[in-house]
C-alpha cells in the first residue's frame, strides 16, 4: 500500500496539473505541447542558491538560454537519475542547439548533498549540468516558490526523500513556460523545447 506521503505527493501533482490544464484550455490559440503550459504563472519566478563553487546563482544568470530545472537528491534510487539521464539525452537530441539549454538540479536534501557531491553527481550525467543547494530554510523557500513537495521519510537507521517529479522549463527571457511530466521521454521533452525555439525565431 502506498504511504501517506506518496499519496499526498500524487494529490499535489494532480491538483497542479489540473489547474494548469484548466488555464491552458481557456486559450484556444495556445500552442500544443506534450508538457503542461504554465506560461504567465505567478510562481517559479526565481531561485537564489549556491553552486558547487559557492557562487550564488539566480535565474537571471542564464538569460539568453533555455533553463530546465529539476528538484531531487543525490541518493535518490530511481526518479532523479532517470530525470538527469533523460535531460542528457534531450541535449543530444537538440544537436547543434544543445548549448542553448542549461540543466539545473536543485537539492532537496542539503543535509547530505554537499557541494562536492552535487558537482560529482551532476557531471556524471553531463559536464554542463549545474547542481545548486542551500541551507534548510533556503531549500524550503525555493521549493515553495516552485510548488515542489518534498519530505523526509525514515528508512531504518537512515532516511530517504519523498518529492514531486515535475521538471520546469524557462524560456530565454527567464519566464516560466512549461511544467514537464516525469513520465514523458526525451523525445517529448526535446519536441517541446524545439517548439519554444520555433516560437522565438
Overview features:
single chain; 201 residues; alpha+beta; 5 helices; 36% helix; Thioredoxin-like_sf
Low-confidence stretches: 1-7, 18-26
CATH fold description:
Glutaredoxin
Question: SSE string, helix = H, strand = E?
Answer: HEEEEHEHEHEEEEH
Q: How would a crystallographer describe the biggest sheet?
A: 6 strands, mixed
Give the CA-based shape: globular
Termini, distance in Å? 49 Å
- Per CATH, the class reads Alpha Beta
Write structural notes for this entry.
Keywords: Copper. The chain has 5 helices and 10 strands, in the order αββββαβαβαββββα. The protein is an alpha+beta fold and 201 residues long. It has one domain: 3-Layer(aba) Sandwich (Glutaredoxin). The protein has a 6-stranded mixed beta sheet with strand order 1-10-9-4-5-6. Strands 2-3 form a two-stranded antiparallel sheet. A two-stranded antiparallel ribbon has the order 7-8. Helix 2 (79-94) links the parallel strand 4 and strand 5. Helix 2 packs across helix 5 (186-200). It starts with a helix and ends with a helix.
Quick summary:
This protein has 5 helices and 10 strands. By secondary structure, it is α+β, with helices and mostly antiparallel strands. The protein has a single domain (4-200), classed as Glutaredoxin, CATH 3.40.30.10.
Walk me through the topology.
Blueprint: H1 4-25, E1 36-37, E2 48-50, E3 56-58, E4 66-72, H2 79-94, E5 101-107, H3 115-123, E6 130-132, H4 136-145, E7 150-155, E8 158-163, E9 167-170, E10 176-180, H5 186-200
Helix pairs in contact: 2-5
Amino acid at each position: 500500500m502506498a504511504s501517506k506521503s506518496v499519496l499526498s505527493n500524487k494529490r499535489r501533482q494532480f491538483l497542479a496539473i489540473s489547474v494548469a490544464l484548466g488555464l491552458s484550455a481557456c486559450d484556444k490559440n495556445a500552442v500544443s505541447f506534450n508538457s503542461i503550459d504554465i506560461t504567465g504563472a505567478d510562481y517559479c519566478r526565481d531561485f537564489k542558491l549556491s553552486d558547487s563553487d559557492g557562487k550564488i546563482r539566480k535565474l537571471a544568470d542564464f538569460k539568453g538560454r533555455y533553463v530546465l530545472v529539476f528538484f531531487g537528491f543525490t541518493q535518490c534510487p530511481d526518479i532523479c537519475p532517470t530525470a538527469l539521464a533523460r535531460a542528457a539525452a534531450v541535449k543530444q537530441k537538440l544537436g547543434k542547439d544543445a548549448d542553448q539549454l542549461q540543466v539545473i538540479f536543485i537539492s532537496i536534501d542539503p543535509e547530505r548533498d554537499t557541494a562536492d557531491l552535487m558537482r560529482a553527481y551532476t557531471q556524471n550525467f553531463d559536464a554542463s549540468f549545474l547542481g545548486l543547494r542551500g541551507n534548510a530554510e533556503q531549500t524550503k523557500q525555493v521549493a515553495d516558490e516552485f510548488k515542489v513537495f518534498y519530505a523526509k521519510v525514515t528508512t531504518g537507521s537512515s532516511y530517504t526523500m519523498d518529492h514531486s517529479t515535475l521538471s520546469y522549463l524557462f524560456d530565454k527571457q527567464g519566464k516560466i513556460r512549461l511544467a514537464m511530466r516525469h513520465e514523458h521521454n526525451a523525445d517529448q521533452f526535446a519536441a517541446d523545447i524545439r517548439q519554444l525555439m520555433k516560437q522565438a525565431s
